[in-house]
Amino acid sequence: MTHPLFVRLATSRVVLRIAPHMLPRCDLFIHRLTRGRLLPSRLVLDTIVLGTTGHRSGTPRATPLATHRAADGTWLVVGSNFGRSHHPAWSTNLLHRPHATVTTRGRSWQVTARQLTVHEREQQRNRILLAIPFYDTYAARAGRDIRVFCLTPITARPGRRAATCPQDGDRR
């Protein structure tokens, strides 16, 4: 559980003006420096680096994101964009090219992304709050429908069946 003081700090005006510009750069710098083994944001939230392909440029993109990983191996990522009014670029990239890479703790997985429906987001609310405890504050501030994606590994770990994102009607 995230400390209430951190939640309050993470939703303050000063942090919301600075964080979108500084946190991703700092995370990516340390991530490259440690060859993918360390992300500073992981000290507070479970964090991955999502590798996407720019839908217009075709250029590889790397974005550190808060996430929640389920026991079945899927990741849930939330396109809150720090509560800003526009969708983050990585979410648009996933809509156009759903194949991506997840890197965390020095390991990488090829994944397929699927945007959750409104009903699925309601069902996955607990996981969303585990990924981003201040989701409600960001959603209210953004004034838009926040995109949430389920990232499913393309290959299963040996001895396990392949994980799948919950669909409408699934009870996970």
Spell out the key features of this protein.
172 residues; alpha+beta; 6-stranded antiparallel β-barrel; 6 helices
Distance between the first and last residues' Cα: 21 Å
Tally of separate helices = 6
Shape: globular
Structural Rg: 15 Å
Query: Approximately how much helix is present in the residues?
Result: 25-40%
Strand line-up of the largest beta sheet:
1-2-3-6-5-4
The helix/strand series, from N terminus to C terminus, equals: HHEEEHEEHHHE
Structural class: alpha+beta
Q: Let me know the number of strands.
A: 6
- Quote the average pLDDT: 83
Largest sheet: 6 strands, antiparallel, barrel
- Unreliably modeled segments: none
Walkthrough of the structure:
- The protein is α+β, with helices and mostly antiparallel strands and 172 residues long.
- The chain is built from 6 helices and 6 strands; from the N terminus they run H-H-E-E-E-H-E-E-H-H-H-E.
- The longest helix has 21 residues, at 13-33.
- It is globular.
Short description:
The chain is of the alpha+beta class. The chain has helices at 4-10, 13-33, 89-96, 118-123, 125-131, 135-142, and strands at residues 47-53, 60-69, 75-78, 99-104, 107-115, 148-153. Strand 1 (47-53) and strand 2 (60-69) form a beta hairpin.
List the helices and strands and how they pair.
Blueprint (H helix, E strand, L loop, with lengths): L3 H7 L2 H21 L13 E7 L6 E10 L5 E4 L10 H8 L2 E6 L2 E9 L2 H6 L1 H7 L3 H8 L5 E6 L19
Antiparallel strand pairs: 1-2, 1-4, 2-3, 3-6, 4-5, 5-6
